[in-house]
Write the structure tokens for this entry.
Amino acid sequence: MNMLDEFIIRAIVAIFLLAINSSLAGSFTIFRDVPFLVAGSAHAALAGAALFIVLEGWVAINPFLGAVLFAILIAVSASRAKQANVAIGISFAFSMSLAVLFISLIKEQAARVWGLLFGDLLLLTDRDILMMATFTVILLTIYLAFIREFLFISFDAEGAEVSGINVAWFNVLLLSTISLATVVAMKAVGAILVYAMLMAPAAAANRVAGSVGRVFLLSGIFALVAGFLGMLVAMILPVAPSAVAALMVTTIYFITLKRRE
Amino acid sequence: MPEVKMIEVKDVSYSYNGKKALDKISFETENEFVAIMGPNGSGKSTLVKLIVGMLKPDEGSIKVFGMEPENARDLIGYMPQRETIAKHFPIRVKDIMIMGASSRRFPTREEMGNAMEALQKIGMKHLWEKRFSALSQGQQQRIMFARALAKKPRLLILDEPFNAVDVPSRNMMVEILKEEREKGTEIIVVVHNINPILHQIEKVVLLNRKCIAWGKPAHVLTPENLKETYGADIQIVRCEEGYCHPLIGDEHAG
């Protein structure tokens, strides 16, 4: 197997992992009505990665963990606020300020952080895939274990509380899984396009599906098809695969807008 | 042995950011159909949230069947206000009904039967597979009502259950409440307009941040108490059956 084949196989695996995250975390972002959490988490992750690169001068520490930590912090702050989207917006601004500040401290390494902004589906390493797969399995397990609780608090938080569900705790857990999925997907498509790849498939599926189960299924299919088409186009033309995939899923969303409620 | 009180509220106060929503509320009820009534912003929903244990009182204490409210939740069927329900994703009626009837991921056959039976009772069994968001506001309210019933609770707590419900459907809901009461279910209903249930209730709590009065409707719904509660003169009409209806919000539903 030549090196090109290896990169393509890794890209195919990454697209499947991306589709799983889009199906689960993307759908719950729509159900829980926290659309900006994905964008907020992605930019918080940039700040976290930048901080850990700064700290690399003193301790051996993986910047990916910094990204995960900061993304989860934004989820926690959103879960504690009455107006989650306002808290996410402010956290977004705060973490971007931090990101720029940290990047200015590590000018010679800044390219590593900016690389996270764009990602590259066709340049993923075995280590990247292993990390994405590990976190996706963890997320899948959490969603399967608590799907009833997550749906209940998304639909009717008061009713869930009276039914004995610890709404505050499950809210933190649900928002943290969305933030974690964002960091996982960022590896493949970058911080800018991750919003399109997680949100647009689920938003489109939510408009056309007749049940919650079908939203999960359709959003996964939309992300999968867009991911593969993006990769195919990038193999023929000199364009970024994630940009083509993001264009596809957003176009699918705009098409579903034509459908009457 | 004395019967355990359904609800015991003793000197309960609650504030939102320093602003008193409830001030030293006290009342108790036992195996009754109770209405909590008051104007907008009078603290009705806050009181309900305290009774079901969603909020903790700043002062005073609340007991439900002699227990702390959060320990009595298995005995309560709760219908929240419709504004708090999400309507933007395609959750189906059956998913909602099962949420109410079972605390398990895979409900038992009996719990499924209870959910179906509650839906049938309100004449909406045919909507089992339908998207909740595709239903009218009144249908959505009735589904939430059926969900509270599906649990077969000892205590039903309904927060503004008749909002957006048309008169025939409202009458059907009142009839079901009457049947539930006859079976021994204890009921608390928060209402802006008490008239649809006035013939069924046994006690009423008149609220405007403090408890203006509580007890039998004939004793509580007096011009003086209503004026103190609503800050205006409320006309009272005596119906053929001898009940005194305060003309608040809408018509006398009989």
Observations:
- The two ends of chain B are 38 Å apart (CA to CA).
- Residues 167-182 of chain B form the longest helix (16 residues).
- Chain B is about 30% helix and 25% strand.
- The longest strand of chain B covers residues 19-29.
